[in-house]
Every structure is written in C-alpha cells, then in structure tokens.
C-alpha cells in the first residue's frame, strides 16, 4: 500500500492548494492529462523534477483509491 502523504502535497501556498508531487510545483493532474493524450515518458521529459518512481507511485495510489471505492 502506498502512503499518499509521502507522494502528494496539498498546500494553499503552492498552486493555490492544487495537489502537487511532493518536492515539486508540478500538479498531479498534469500527469493524468499527459496520460490521456501521450505517455508517462513524455510527461517525465517535460517535467524532470518528477521522478519516474514518484509518478508510478502516484498512479498506483490512484488505482488503489479507485479500486477500493474511496473518492480521490
């Protein structure tokens, strides 16, 4: 199980409270937008402050939440 507090930050002083990858100012939604149109590799090329492992963990967390029926 992935712990969300280690992956995603929600802080009103960072992008107005939009969930971002921990340690970055990159919105998590941006990655999912990329995945709709392109690939994870393209996202990572465009946002090098997000590691592949962190992105994969956030995807895993989203899947866990979705499959458990917990609202994201």
How would you describe the overall organization of this protein?
The chain is mostly helical. It has a single domain, classed as Orthogonal Bundle (Arc Repressor Mutant, subunit A). The chain is built from three helices and two strands. The protein has a two-stranded antiparallel sheet.
CATH topology: Arc Repressor Mutant, subunit A
- Report the structural category: mainly alpha
Number of strands: 2
For the record, the count of structural domains works out to: 1
* Beta content: 5-15%
Rounded mean pLDDT score: 89
Give me the CATH architecture, please: Orthogonal Bundle
Distance between the termini: 15 Å
Mass-distribution shape: globular
Low-confidence spans: none
How do the strands line up in the largest sheet? 1-2
């Amino acid at each position: 199980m992935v712990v969300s507090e280690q992956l995603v930050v929600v802080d009103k002083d960072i992008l107005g409270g939009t969930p971002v990858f921990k340690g970055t100012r990159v919105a998590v939604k941006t990655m999912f937008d990329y995945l709709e149109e392109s690939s994870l590799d393209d996202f990572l090329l465009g946002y090098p402050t997000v590691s592949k492992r962190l992105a994969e963990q956030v995807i895993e967390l989203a899947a866990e939440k979705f499959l458990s029926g917990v609202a994201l």
